[in-house]
Amino acid sequence: MALRAALRNRGGVSGLLSQLSSCSSHARVCVSPVLVTQQRNNSTSPKIKVDFDQSTGVAIMHMQSPPVNSLSLDFLTEFCINVEKLEMDKSCRGLIITSSQPKVFSAGLDIMEMYGKSPERCGEFWKAVQEMWLKLYSSNMVTIAAISGSSPAGGCLMSLTCDYRIMADNPRYSIGLNETQLGIVAPFWFKDTMANTVGHRTTEIALELGLLYNPSEALKIGLVDQLVPEDQVLTTATQTMTKWLAIPDHARQITKSMMRKPTIDKLTSNREADIQNFVSFITKDSIQKSLRMYLEMLKKRKS
User: Fold this and answer.
1) Using an 8 Å Cβ cutoff, are 115 and 295 in contact?
2) N or C terminus of the chain: which is more exposed, having fewer CB within 10 Å?
3) Catalytic pick from 123, 154, 155, 210?
């Protein structure tokens, strides 16, 4: 499904970006917010770099939007366009998604896309988030997340859409859907994606408490599939891709569709309602107040 031309022509937005680093366990949550700010890089600078090796049929997508690959409308639009191009190229059988930014895969949704914006803009942004998920979760390509740093919230969602997840074995990194920590509710398709991966009860606890897991905890619950030394993440992803591509495409693709189609159909049949629910929720005065307080806290930590 192509993105509308209106999405393709968006300019850049300046703003604050944030990343939460935390330690967590099933019994408690210890969160220490870390301030990360940026003046958004020029909108003409590519936020995505794709290296496609036609001899292997494998593309490596490098997210390169400093400092933390925050999922803004601009970023999501460029990301979706690149995935769509690869999907249409029948010679591309596998996609590895990784980060060019140190210590982070993606810090998740750009808070400034949700704060102080018109309902129309919020709806446009949320449709782009949906589009990213739909393109990856339904992709015919083998998709592997090479997670070389922390991956909270939307970054975790992106990695969950992939067929396989390899994470750097560094206890300082974290991954999880921690939306409730910011007073935001993860929508049903976030929940379903995680439940399909780690099970209902683990998802229930994780989402209610907004847990972020360190790599060893993430491996234990099945949130990631493999841990490797930090400097071996991409190499291991490339080696793992070879094993996945040894399976006949048609058999793997049909099996993947069979496993994921009910979840995909649930969103595709409720996209507009989901957008309206998001816009109604995120524009509430109480939610905007929570986001404003969080941003003010970030400013104080910087000063």
Assistant:
1) yes
2) C
3) 154
pTM score of the predicted model? 0.84
Distances, alpha carbon 94 to alpha carbons 128, 163, 248, 287, 300, in Å:
23, 10, 13, 39, 44
Residue range 123-161, pLDDT digits in tens: 999 999 999 999 999 999 999 999 999 999 999 999 999
- 259 Cα distance to chain centroid: 20
Sequence ranges of the domains in the chain: 48-302
Is there a catalytic annotation at residue 270?
no
178 is catalytic: yes
Which letter does DSSP use for residue 150 in this model? B
b/e sequence 169-187, b meaning 16+ C-beta within 10 Å: bbeebbbbbbbbbbebebb
Give the residue ranges of DSSP H helices in 138-187. 154-160
Domain at 48-302: CATH code? 3.90.226.10
